[in-house]
Structures are given as structure tokens and as C-alpha cells.
Design brief:
alpha+beta; 2 domains; 10 helices; seven-stranded mixed sheet; 17 strands; globular; Aldehyde Oxidoreductase, domain 4
Amino acid sequence: MPALHARAIGRDLVRRDGRLKVTGTAPYAYEGPLGKPAYCHLIQATIARGRVTGMETTSAQAIDGVITVLTADNAGRLASTDDNELAVLQSDEVAFRRQIIGAVIAETSEIARHAAEIVGVTYAQAPHDVELSADRADLYKPYRINPSYPTDTADGDVASAMATAPVTLERTYSTAMYHNNPMEPHTTTALWDGSLTMWDSSQGVHSARSVIARVFGFDHEQVRVVCPHVGGGFGSKGTPHAPVVVAVMAARAVPGRAVKLALTRQQMFFLVGYRTPTIQKTQLAADRDGHLAAIALDVPTRSMYAAPNRRTTHRLAALDVPVPTWMRAPGECPGMFGPEVALDELAEQLGLDPIELRIRNEPSVDPASGRPWSSRNLVACL
């Protein structure tokens, strides 16, 4: 059998897109050569919860260069509204501050933005709830998590181990909200001429095609998604968000003409997701040599360490806030914070080096399944 030769690792390779990117000539979704496009700018809610009771669009529509103003009254019905995030302009309900409640289509981006800013909106406000806490009475158990792991897991008797172990530690940690906010904002250029062509800043063109076809009731053959280059995504561009739906609505409002929609940096904080904040209660039990007897977490993470008694739980709170999404290392990044910091604190309590504590609890098999590792080099890395 011939020896394997590395084709990439350790070799000096020239990136195929390198020259385009360093010379500023790499094309992105917003920059397609499409003749004379129209431009779309979003109108966003200024309340946290309630209903839109009226929108005064006459002044905006009177501006020279404005083509039309989309609202829930004229945007058209979607074929599927199963995903609440994508059910945009389908009702007068406001579920969070800066939700999309309309859009202006105009001859230039400047005209569209100005017209969107002068649309008058009246509301019927409702009480809102935006605070996450661990003692909420309305926390609920999701069916599956991230995306198909069981919500709760349990092995052994954590309570008994915590009651009898010579060394225990209980801590509550929290992780903050993080926004993806890549260098290239989310942008979509859409053209409807009986079929849809979408130049989209997407990390998954096939996913985008499937989602848009389902939401609008198109045949898959009617939808083409093009993504020449992506200026970063960090997970937020893995699936379409509400602005993509609005871009398609706008394209259908001016058939035969491309419509460009680019989010502002401010809009990126509200409309394309973020990593959810978490509150994590972490419990550890160990003998005086540092061998773990119990691990309990309130977050869905698969443990890197072995203990005969393990428990994980995961609960959600429904709040009046923008919709979260994937962010790089979804689940693992916030989920590992609690147990890893707890191990550091336990090491200090035991008078052990934190690395030595981890080595002593290195599992020989997968703690969840009992299966042997195909490969595992954590100790070597430590």
C-alpha cells in the first residue's frame, strides 16, 4: 500500500480566492451586475410587545423614487408559517422590539432608508417580559436539544453521591448573549421573473433553497440560490432569517427587476440571531484524590469526564426578545463553561493542579455510550 502524502497540512498553498480578496475584487451577494436594481429598507417595531394598530405610509409613498411600501396588509400570504421567525408581515402582532413590520422599495438605498424612517406607526402596547432567571415558574422542557439530543439525562444517583462524598462543589454560572456579527452583513439580492434567483450571503445554499421554497410554496426547480463569497457568518448564515423572506416579497412586488436588501450594522443585532444567554447550576462530587463521583449540570452538554453518577437537564424560557440562532460551536461553547470553571474551583479546593484533576478523570470509554474511543488525545494535549 503506497504511503500517504499530505496534500494540504504543512504545505505552502495558494488560496484560489486569495488574489480576488486581497485586491478587493471578490464578488459578494450584494454586488451582482444586475442592470438597474431596486433597493429595500426595513421598517422595524419600536415596542417590545403588542400590536400595530396603524401605519401612515402616504408621506413615504409620496417621495420621488419610492416604488412601494410593504406592510402586513399588502405583503401577501406565505404558504408556510410554521416557523414564527419567518412568518414576517403576516399579522399585526409585535413579538419583540425591532421586529420587521414593513419595508420600503425604492430606486436607491438612500431613498428607501429615508422613506422607511418617516413611516408613522401606532401601537397597542402589551406587557412584556425579557428577563431570564433560573427561578421562573414558566420554564419548560423542550422535546429535543441541539438539535436531537435528549433534553435530560441521568445515570446513577447524583443526590446520594453529593450527600456522601467527602468533597463537593455547587456553583451557579451565567454566560452572556453573543452576537455573530460577521464583517459582511447579511445581504440578499432577489430577482423574480416567474422563478426566483437569490444572491444570498449564505453558509448553506441548499438549505436556503429548501427553506424559501417551503415558506413560499415554490417548487424547488423555481428557486436558485447563488453565493459567490461569504464575508464571515459564524453560524448566523447557516439558515435564512426574516430579512431573506422580505427580500423575496420585495422581488415579487417588482417582477423582472432585482431588489437588493442589506442589513445595517444596527439591524444585525436584532434580526439574524445570536447566542442565547445561559444560567448554569453545576454540581461536582469527588473523593479527596480528585476522582469524580458525580457531575450534575443544568445545560445540555456531553461530559468529557467520567463519573458514576451524572445528570444533565435543560429548560427554556419564552421571552419577548429577538430569535436566537446557531453561533460557532453551538451548545458546546456556553455548555462547557460551567463544568470547566467548576473543575478549576474543585482543583483549588482539593489543592490539585487543574490539569492533574482532569487527567485523573480521563474516561477510558465514552461516558454516555460506554463505547471505546476511535481516538482521543486530550491528555497528550494537556
